[in-house]
Design brief:
By secondary structure, the protein is an alpha+beta fold. 25% of the residues lie in helices and 36% in strands. The chain contains ten helices and 20 strands. The strands form four sheets. It has a six-stranded mixed sheet, with helices on both faces. Helix 6 links the parallel strand 7 and strand 8.
């Protein structure tokens, strides 16, 4: 994939509020990039700047090296899909799809062909005579997607397009959009605040906070190697341990939490003796075992760099495929997540357990 859409030093302010702050970004042809962040992080403003609906205070937008920063939205030929569909209620599905073609002077015969092809791509053949009010929410979203695709745009911009759908339908549409994107080799910029959606659909994720991109990379990189505490907490779930390095021996650093819990980490992550660190630990990396089977007094590092402690289950949440536990470990309250099933024994509230993790599962993160 070659660089296709480039953003250079893009900034936008509304009165005293900085919405986008000096963002530089390159997007490859055929790539799906998710702009992920909480409300107010600047992701929708970023999309509107790309679409041409907002004019930047500084910076440029380039498509294949051509500066389109001051080009009107209609002349950029970008497709746009909104959360609330934005279909014309008084028009049939056919006319909704035909509208952008008619404004571009496409012939009736070619319009008929493209509309039929677009409806087929979103699995709605034969729906051209219906009105939006006669369609379900998921069908309306498919029509909105088909309308954005019907004239073959070079870039598809999607602003939380599945936010109004229920969970099951949203998950189905995620896979359908990804399939269409790959089939047509579309370049897609997809705005969402849903971490699972971003992880599921995108080739890369740009995590935004206060108008800036704080980390950019493939989904696995962001999940496994978050740049800071904000990313570790926003993408998925993390336990955070505040520790002080107290010694280094044989390539392993020892660190203590403020209440005296001793943890081990790789010396390359630790820094000098006395360094204060914030460690992130994913709940699914926390192991639980029946009490006494693993932790017996001071537990040395075992195979794979595992160390075990005594803990007590304080809360159990059953969520179908997994169980989530809150477990008390000295002064620390950690979240652990394990597979659930008939052949996987669970633990009860108040039960004593052994709690362990590998030092390779700890990530040093910068505080935000």
């Amino acid at each position: 994939m070659t660089q296709f859409l480039t953003v250079e030093g893009l900034s936008k302010r509304f009165d005293r509020t900085v919405a986008v702050a000096d963002v530089t970004l390159s997007i490859k042809r055929g790539e799906m990039l998710a702009l992920l962040g909480p409300s107010g992080s600047g992701k929708t403003t970023m999309l509107r700047l790309l679409a041409g609906f907002e004019t930047p205070d500084a910076g440029r937008v380039l498509v294949e090296g051509e500066d389109v920063t001051r080009v009107e939205p209609v002349h950029r030929r970008f497709g746009m899909v909104f959360q609330h569909y934005a279909l014309f209620p008084h028009m049939t599905v056919y006319d909704n799809l035909a509208f952008p073609l008619r404004t571009r002077g496409v012939t009736r015969a070619e319009t008929d062909r493209r509309v039929e092809e677009a409806l087929g791509r979103v699995r709605l053949p034969g729906y051209g005579a219906r009105f939006p009010a006669q369609l379900s929410g998921g069908q309306q979203q498919r029509v909105a997607l088909a309308r954005a695709l019907v004239y073959g745009p070079p870039v598809l911009l999607m602003d939380e397009p599945l936010g109004a759908l229920d969970k099951k339908l949203r998950e189905q549409m995620q896979l359908e959009i990804k399939h269409i994107q790959r089939e047509l080799r579309l370049t897609v910029i997809y705005v969402t605040h849903d971490q699972e959606e971003a992880l599921t659909m995108s080739d890369r994720i740009a995590v935004m906070r206060q108008g800036r991109i704080v980390q950019l990379g493939p989904p696995e990189d962001l999940y496994e190697r978050p740049a800071d505490q904000f990313v570790a907490d926003f993408i998925g779930e993390s336990n955070f341990l505040e520790v002080t390095v107290r010694g280094i021996e044989g390539g392993v650093a020892t660190a203590l939490t403020d209440d005296g819990l001793e943890v081990a980490l790789a010396v390359g992550d630790a820094g000098a003796d006395g360094t204060r660190l914030t460690l992130a630990l994913r709940p699914e990396r926390v192991r639980l075992a029946p009490a006494g089977g693993q932790a017996r007094g001071p537990s040395p590092l075992g195979a794979g760099g595992y160390r075990w402690w005594h803990g007590v289950i304080e809360e159990v949440v059953y969520i179908g495929a997994t169980r989530k536990y809150q477990v008390r470990l000295g002064g620390q309250l950690l979240v652990a997540q394990q597979q659930a099933g008939a052949d996987v024994p669970g633990f009860r509230e108040g039960e004593n357990v052994d709690v362990g993790w590998s030092m390779a599962d700890l990530r040093v993160v910068h505080k935000h």
